[in-house]
Specification:
2 copies of one chain form a homodimer. Chain A is globular. The first copy, chain A, has a single domain, classed as Arc Repressor Mutant, subunit A. Chain A contains 5 helices and 5 strands, in the order αααββββαβα. The termini of chain A are far apart. In chain A, the strands form 2 sheets. Chain A has a 3-stranded mixed sheet. The mean pLDDT of chain A is 92. In chain A, 37% of the residues lie in helices and 22% in strands. In chain A, strand 3 and strand 4 form a beta hairpin. In chain A, helix 1 packs across helix 3 and helix 2 packs across helix 3. Chain A is of the alpha+beta class. At the A-B interface, strand 3, helix 4, strand 5 and helix 5 of A face strand 3, helix 4, strand 5 and helix 5 of B. Strand 5 of chain A pairs antiparallel with strand 5 of chain B, so a sheet runs across the interface. Chain B binds a DNA duplex through helix 1 and helix 3.
Chain lengths: 132, 132
DNA sequence: ATAAGAATGTTATGATATTACATCAATTGC
DNA sequence: GCAATTGATGTAATATCATAACATTCTTAT
């Protein structure tokens, strides 16, 4: 795997779409937004997303089947990332908590469970939406 | 809402299918297993699942689009539940961790985020599968 | 008995994701 | 050079997951 310095055209387009989006996008929404750039089929989106996720530049939000550009693309050294997703406005906050990571890691070790990917997603109402 | 004492026929059938399954089942797998019991359409499954989830008898695993019978159906007082899902054999472990719950709650409070539903799912290899 | 609310049955459709196969481009080993 | 490999792409078809819309039946409270 080469350094992320060189994304392919499709990968760059998908990342750009996500980066400029107001919130998480579904794969098909991305497809629609890239029609004018030559995208014709879902696979073009899914393949780009796959690579971008490997590079740590994009996250998949499992609970809503959508994707976001990573908010902290600098250090993607495997740390556990949690998401707070506003069900009203779609805004997503990305955060880490060492204690949570430690507790889940402890459980895994105690049960001889070898984690490959961990999902933490909190759905609810963000500050703005819950005060309104 | 009435007490879970009386499930409807469809709800009981779906719960039974999940309870006797070796692991999580997709809605369509449940449908197939209940064909002989008169199930014909996905909605029959989804509607039963919806009620069973409200009653805390069934959980949805967001990361794999599947459903499991709750392992601790006694006390469903809103506590945060985490799942460890073996990607090899499909076995699911359900557990709680007060510290994790407290830390996520603390983050939410600090950010004025009002949580409605929280998902914690660890995918990986269970003891049996990782030792083999 | 009847009105209100749930649950059900059925068809159709929407939304998300992958398989399969052909092609093209860059790199590598000889 | 030039096959051989590898990775990316294009395209069509299909698989998988989930809900909308509508009619009907069952339950229960009054």
């Amino acid at each position: 795997m080469k350094a992320p310095a060189e994304l392919t055209k499709n990968q760059a387009l998908v990342l750009d779409a996500l980066s400029h989006a107001e919130g998480p996008l579904s794969a098909y929404t991305i497809l629609d937004r890239l029609r004018d750039d030559g995208f014709r089929a879902p696979l073009q989106v899914y393949r780009a997303l796959e690579k971008l996720q490997e590079l740590g530049l994009v996250h998949r939000l499992e609970s809503i089947n959508a994707f976001v550009a990573c908010a902290h693309p600098h250090d993607h050294h495997q740390e556990l990332i949690a998401f707070a997703i506003c069900e009203n406005c779609g805004k997503v906050d990305e955060f880490s908590d060492e204690m949570v990571e430690e507790r889940l890691g402890r459980w895994a070790k105690a049960h001889d469970f070898r984690p490959s990917k961990t999902t933490i997603e909190i759905r609810g109402a963000c500050r703005t939406c819950s005060s309104a």
